[in-house]
Design a protein that fits this description.
Oligomer: single chain
Distance between the termini: 96 Å
Shape: globular
Helix content: 40-55%
Strand order of the largest sheet: 4-3-2-6-5
Structural class: alpha/beta
Radius of gyration: 33 Å
Number of strands: 12
Length: 601
């Protein structure tokens, strides 16, 4: 009985459909107005569907094509309808906020290439009258000879040479031209005279310290210097109590591993002597200067202004940092293998290192920072770097942002670079010259080259020097795809207040003296008064952003500036070493490359 009813129902379905079609056709024919009304509704719906735009789509990495984006969006919408997932709908709406990097840097151009306040400050390192009289007495003593053996790369050795001259003055000793490090990680056989003009060095400082090229024999007998090492950050009193008695007894003393062996804080006259050595007496040889000037001229031929970037993204640097840069298991294995070279290093916490601002930015992040600060794609970029980890693939995002990408290898022929290419310090000297002469210098770590150049650029007119505020930028880079470009760029500019090389960014006496030579920078108060200005990093940035109509959070800005002035960002060059064979933060690494050597340049 039930089977019969089911069969009857099956036969009734086609009949019912046929009956509905005939009924509809009859009434549509009988009532043409009804037909017209339904036709109008159908056309209206079609027009609305055609004219309504699809929601915007964001691809967080590479945009393939608009068609692919549309297909991806439709797939996701269909998936939502299928699953009825409200959470997915919420996620979709969040991801459609637009983060599109512009090619233009915005309307901040007039304030990008120079400091508005540079004309109110100048380098001043002349000795006081009392210091000159004391120096005259110092030069009379010829019975004590001080030798120093520097350590690390070019710029770390530069700090040692500078402090060596001051130590000789404190000890009332004759200084022998410093011996450069030829056996460390940098493996450079250059001696002092192959990098610096030794005659100029001796003559320029002749009023401060007597300097000779080599240790002379005494009474027909060669002097063998007594070798010793002084503690890190040794004060003048420390030298007088630990070194002077030995010097009086032995007559010749060689201080080994001489880097950061003099206190950061000295009286103003000794600090000014440091500046005379670093900024005037240490001049590169004519051969290096000529090649460096050629590189600068070739950059100037390409563009009126250019940025120099010390990228510092070499495999060894990244391995030592203990940071993670998104390369997956391959990166962890490769950098982990290099890191094991330093047996004394503890296991790292990459997330913690990045949160604390101890990781270098990736090339892409550096490019985004520069674009947010106002530098467009037409800007020419000189990159000072060794072998970049990941090669061209890693550099590709930076080159996409700044296609006018240059290095000493692209500006000069192999033949021109041949006299220098076998000497790492001489190659570093070429990069140093271009970075020093650039309109804007940006660093990517806080090593010795960054510090020396930052101080030098302050001394010679406060040329813009960008130091990434990595601690603040880290969070911003992580969340950038949830922001529009305008929001992201505004936050970058806010975080960088106090990190742009402007006057008064760092309180006098704070930070490394080579980075902030406050005792050697004088203010032209009269010129400043005539201009009617009270200049601080904050109001300079406000002035520069008027065109961009920035709305800066004042409280956060003051925190950033204060953080820069108080926090000493203690990298490995600042650590105190002891000779006990233990390698932890602040102690030595016997038998292997010392920590500060790695961060040297």
């Amino acid at each position: 009985m039930r089977r019969k009813k089911r069969e009857t129902k099956r036969r009734n379905i086609p009949a019912a459909v046929l009956h509905w079609i005939l009924f509809t056709r009859y009434y549509l024919v009988q009532f043409p107005l009804l037909t017209a009304f339904f036709g109008f509704l159908l056309l209206l719906f079609a027009a609305f569907a055609f004219l309504s735009p699809l929601p915007p789509i964001i691809n967080h990495h590479n945009h393939s094509s608009q068609q692919a984006n549309d297909s991806d969006f439709l797939f996701r919408v269909m998936n939502q309808l299928k699953n009825g997932a409200k959470a997915e709908e919420s996620t979709l709406s969040k991801e459609t906020s637009s983060f599109r990097v512009p090619r233009s840097g915005g309307r901040l151009g007039s304030h990008l290439w120079s400091s508005r306040s540079s004309k109110f400050y100048y380098g001043c390192s002349n000795a006081s009258e009392s210091f000159e009289n004391a120096a005259a007495d110092t030069r009379k003593n010829s019975d004590r000879y001080l030798l120093i053996a520097t350590s690390g790369g070019l710029n770390q050795q530069r700090t040692g040479i500078t402090d060596g001259v001051v130590a000789a003055y404190i000890l009332n000793a004759t200084l022998v031209v410093p011996k450069l490090d030829q056996k460390s990680f940098w493996n450079d056989s250059s001696d002092f005279a192959q990098i610096f003009d030794a005659d100029w060095f001796i003559s320029f400082l002749s009023k401060d310290v007597t300097i000779i090229k080599q240790l002379h024999a005494k009474g027909g007998k060669a002097l063998n210097p007594y070798r010793m090492r002084v503690p890190r950050r040794c004060t003048p009193t420390c030298y007088l109590t630990k070194v002077l008695p030995v010097l009086n007894k032995k007559h010749a003393v060689q201080l080994g591993k001489f880097d950061y062996r003099l206190s950061n804080r000295l009286d103003p006259d000794l600090q000014k002597l440091r500046c005379r050595v670093n900024y005037h007496a240490l001049k590169f040889t004519d051969t290096i200067l000529e090649m460096g000037k050629k590189l600068v001229q070739r950059m100037r031929m390409k563009s009126e202004h250019f940025i120099a970037l010390h990228l510092r993204f070499e495999p060894d640097m990244l391995a030592f940092s203990g940071c993670y840069f998104g390369g997956g298991e391959k990166e962890r294995m490769e950098l982990g293998k290099i890191r094991r070279r330093w047996k004394s290093l503890h296991a790292s916490n990459p997330d913690k290192e990045r949160r604390q601002g101890r990781c270098p930015l990736t090339p892409e992040e550096v490019g985004l920072m520069l674009r947010a600060l106002g530098f467009g794609s037409d800007v020419h970029l000189y990159v000072a770097s060794g072998e970049v980890y990941g090669g061209e693939e890693t550099l590709a995002p930076l080159k996409a942002l700044f296609p006018n990408f240059h290095s000493k290898e692209t500006l000069a022929s192999m033949r021109e670079l041949a006299p220098f290419s076998s000497f790492s310090s001489q190659m570093a000297a070429l990069d140093f010259i271009v970075c020093d002469e650039s309109d804007v210098f940006s660093t990517n770590n806080n090593g010795n080259m960054a510090k020396i150049l930052a101080g030098r650029r302050r001394y010679f007119g406060h040329k813009p020097t960008i130091r990434p505020n990595a601690k603040k930028l880290y969070k911003l880079f992580m969340s950038r795809h949830n922001k529009t470009w305008e929001e992201f760029a505004s936050r970058v500019r806010t975080h960088q207040i106090g990190f742009m090389g402007e006057p008064n960014e760092v309180k006098p006496g704070r930070g490394e003296f080579h980075e902030n030579p406050s005792s050697c920078i004088c203010e032209d108060s009269a010129a400043k008064a005539r201009a009617g200005l009270t200049l601080t990093p904050q109001n300079l940035l406000d002035e520069g952003h008027k065109d961009g109509k920035e709305n800066i959070n004042r409280n956060e800005t003051s925190d950033v500036t204060d953080e820069h002035s108080i926090e000493d960002d203690q990298d490995l060059t600042d650590m105190d070493y002891v000779d006990n064979g233990t390698a932890v933060r602040g102690k030595g690494l016997p038998g292997e490359m010392l920590l500060e050597e790695f961060f040297s340049d």
